[in-house]
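If you are new to this repository, start here. Below is one unmodified record pulled from the training split, so you can see the exact layout before writing a loader.
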Amino acid sequence: SKASFGAWLTKLMTIKTGSDVGTYNSGGIRANLPAGDITIETLYKILPFDNMVKSCVLKGNYVHNEISSKIAYIRDGLSVYEGGEYRVVTNEYVYDFENGVYVLYGYSEIFYDGNIRDWVIEELRLQAQAGLTFDVNNPILSTIDPALLRSDRYANAFI
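And here is the target side for that same chain:
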């Protein structure tokens, strides 16, 4: 389903970037994940937009608002408190939304190389190499890759 794929997608983004929370707009996932083989064509139908990945630090009260209105993943074992600060990763459509929380209240921004669909393709290849048939319950095999950080654009960014 779109919901289970969206939950998996936000988990992938969160783990791959070392973030605390991942969010994604449900409208960015345009088709259900069919049973059987997943092709590049299938992924273009599901994720037709070339959304880049962006993150920033937000206060807990803004994080609560985001996770209540979007598909979201919170890193295992993490509790989000109103006054806490959390690295939140999302797609550029959500991030750049005019008058949105990321633009107005986020800081320590990181823009990552590659688009979300490419990240999914990479993860699916890793799972296939590990002998796994894709399932949203499989562990995420992608790891934090500092090379994804576009530090040339944001010197104050951190991972």
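Two things worth knowing about this chain: Confidence is low (pLDDT under 50) at residues 151-159. The two ends are 31 Å apart (CA to CA).
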